[in-house]
Specification:
- With about 120 residues, the protein is mostly beta strands.
- The chain is about 0% helix and about 50% strand.
- The protein has no helices and eleven strands.
- It has strands at about 1-5, 10, 15-25, 30-40, 45-50, 55-60, 65-70, 75-80, 90-100, 110, 115-120.
- The strands form two sheets. Strands 2, 4, 5, 6, 9, 10 and 11 form a seven-stranded mixed beta sheet that branches. A four-stranded antiparallel beta sheet has the order 1-3-8-7, with no helix packed on it.
- It starts with a strand and ends with a strand.
Amino acid sequence: VQLVESGGGLVQPGGSLRLSCSASGFTFDNYAMNWVRQAPGKGLEWVSSISGGGGRLLYKESVKGRFTISRDNAKNTLYLQMNSLKPDDTAVYSCAKSQFMCSESGGSYDYRGQGTQVTVSS
């Protein structure tokens, strides 16, 4: 299994970034996929989840209306479009595969990538 994230960087408050996660080594559309993040000095935090077919989406309350998760099963790629970014969004963002969709209530990940740094600062 391999999950490789890209697209992070430094952006000003109010700006946008699009993260990508390239997956290999497993049957991509058989699994739910998630974005999680870890800010400096804090624990791992679930951000969003998408079902295997892409028809069901879930978001952390604080990112609803600003972030959009999507997937292209033909390309084995997961995306996270992040708009109206805030300094509190600063973290290392990782993608993670799971048997079932995760949520703010919990869930478990089979595998997680190394992550890409997102820094929101003026």
